[in-house]
Amino acid sequence: MKILVLGGAGYIGSHVVKDLLANHMEVVVYDDLSTGSQQNLFEKAEFIKGSILDYPALLSAMKKNIDAVILLAGKKAVGESMENPEKYALNNLSGNINVLNAMAESGIKKIVFSSSAAVYGTPQYLPLDENHPLNPMSFYGFTKAEMEKYMQWYDKLKGIKFVSLRYFNAVGYDEEGSIRGLEQNPQNLLPIVMEAISGKRNSMSVFGNDYDTRDGTCIRDYIHVSDLADAHTKALLYLDKNEQSLVLNLGTETGISVLEIIKETERLTGKTVPYKIAPRRPGDPAIVTASAKKAFDALGWKATHSGLENIILSTWRLYQ
Ligand code: UFG
Predict the structure, then answer these.
(1) How far is it, in rounded angstroms, from Cα 298 to Cα 301?
(2) E strand residue ranges, the chain
(3) Which of 44, 141, 307, 310 has the smallest number of CB atoms closer than 10 Å to its CB?
């Protein structure tokens, strides 16, 4: 199969490309390098520098005998999406509609989409399964939920089949060290812990220690990017054999608290994480964990890289 990976130079995209190549797929990476990095490109994959906002360029990339598209290009900072919704409307909505239209025009019938647990909003029950009502608390989550609706319509009207992968908290780096591009300006917990421990920042904040959880800090479902990557490959193989679209959670079904991440990082690295307890961050639910049963049933997928130790050490290796 020949796969066009939109956003293939990014943090998750580069891990996906590595997995596809390891599974003998032909890969074309299309990325504007706005947040992705040249360092994340693989020699074995063709690279086109381009934006999903550039319809003619996107269309010409799709005319390279592409069998399926993986769409990871997009903006992903939850806080920024609330301050600058225009940026998210443009990239995550207009850009994504361009992708669907270019697929319709070039006759490509399969897409794997990078969605998020942010579509659910505050959990009404746990673990979250795919039937949980969608009530995004951020504009970012809204854009992901909207794209899922667009894909349902393009499935009905244009026969484009999709697998939408709702990632929980993506963490970790390739264990073989073949992906070296660090995220610029990270907004998520683990890279912030790494920056604090390696002296790149003086201190970090733990947002709230008065939640109704075992140690008072928030609990999340941290999933290793190599596990996410594996799910993309399996989703493509699924779409190759099945004419039915799917929406799937990708998580470990295990919750880890903020303090557990910090303590385990200290134990594994032998260093002290400089942190202070800060007020709660608005919009943070106490606990978010996934049911990943559907992904197991449909794809035979299961997280195998997501042990806490591996998550931390694979990240630390890069930040050291
Ligand atoms: N946290 C801190 N200090 C920090 C950063 C984060 O204490 O400096 C805490 C947060 O309050 C939260 C936990 O660490 O309790 C995880 O926070 P992240 O910002 O890393 O991740 P979120 O759970 O808020 O959101 C992430 C992604 C979203 C995705 C969501 C799905 O950023 O894109 O997971 O559950 F939608």
Answers:
(1) 8
(2) 2-6, 26-31, 46-49, 68-71, 110-116, 161-167, 169-171, 204-207, 219-220, 222-224, 246-250, 256-257, 275-278
(3) 44
Predicted TM-score of the model (pTM): 0.97
pLDDT < 50 positions in the chain: none
Number of neighbours of residue 204 by Cβ within 10 angstroms: 19
Cis peptide upstream of residue 127 (ω within 30 degrees of 0): yes
pLDDT tens-place string over residues 74-127: 999 999 999 999 999 999 999 999 999 999 999 999 999 999 999 999 999 999
* Closest ligand 1 atom to 116 CA: 36
pLDDT given for residue 184 in this prediction: 82
| Protein residue closest via CA to atom 12 of ligand 1 | 218
Per-residue model confidence (pLDDT) at position 283 = 87
CA distance linking residue 74 with residue 140, whole number of Å: 10
CA distance 164 to 288: 19
Catalytic residue (choose from 88, 120, 140, 238)? 140
Coil, strand or helix at 230 = helix
Report long-range pairs for 241-245 (Cβ below 8 Å, ≥24 apart): 242/161, 243/161, 244/161, 245/151, 245/152, 245/155, 245/161, 245/162, 245/163, 245/164
Q: In whole angstroms, what is the distance from residue 6 CA to residue 70 CA? A: 6
> What are the φ and ψ backbone dihedral angles of 2, each rounded to 5 degrees?
-110, 120
Nearest to 186 by CA among 175, 198, 174: 198
| pLDDT value at residue 117 | 98
For residue 110, what are the contacts with CB-CB under 8 A and spacing of at least 6?
67, 68, 69, 160, 161, 162, 236, 239, 240
- For residues 311 and 256, give the distance between their C-alpha atoms in angstroms, rounded to a whole number: 12
- For ligand 1, the distance from its centroid to the CA atom of residue 285, given in whole angstroms, is 10
Q: Is 140 assigned a catalytic role?
A: yes
